[in-house]
């Protein structure tokens, strides 16, 4: 048997006489249980170009719907290669249209934001009823 300090911040500090190896085992077990209950956030990314055509857009939209239904967050990115950075408005319009069409499956977490040569928007799934 060992003397184990349970609550060092209490006044006076709380100690318990227990088997230390059993105490460590139970602590580890509790930590494992807490870790198992945490929700892992999955982020799926969908990339567009500023000149993405309707068919490609609809194809990627269907994938985004399935990702949101699975419970994953979706990050839609428009990548501006070379001189296409001139078409920032086109990229923003594309992302806003994407968010509008996904309105019934997810909600916008982060509005379109330009970071270097990428403009991205973040969507999270709607809560299940």
- Please report the first level of CATH classification, the CATH class of the largest domain: Alpha Beta
Poorly predicted runs: none
Radius of gyration from the alpha-carbon trace, in angstroms: 25 Å
**Mean of all residue-level pLDDT scores:** 87
Task: Give me the secondary-structure category.
Answer: alpha+beta
Assigned CATH architecture of the largest domain: 2-Layer Sandwich
Q: What is the H level of CATH, i.e. the homologous superfamily of the largest domain?
A: Translation initiation factor 3 (IF-3), C-terminal domain
Strand segment count: 6
The helix/strand series, from N terminus to C terminus, equals: EEHEHEHEE
Estimate the helix proportion, in percent. 25-40%
Strand content: 25-35%
CATH topology assignment of the largest domain: Translation Initiation Factor IF3
Largest sheet report: 4 strands, mixed
The strands making up the biggest β-sheet line up spatially as: 3-4-6-5
Explain how this protein is built:
The protein is an alpha+beta fold. The protein folds into 2 domains: 2-37, no CATH class; 43-125, 2-Layer Sandwich (Translation Initiation Factor IF3). Helix content is 38%, strand content 33%. The protein has a 4-stranded mixed β-sheet, with helices on one face. Strand 1 (2-7) and strand 2 form a beta hairpin. The longest helix is centred in the N-terminal third of the chain and has 18 residues, at 20-37. It is elongated, with a radius of gyration of 25 Å.
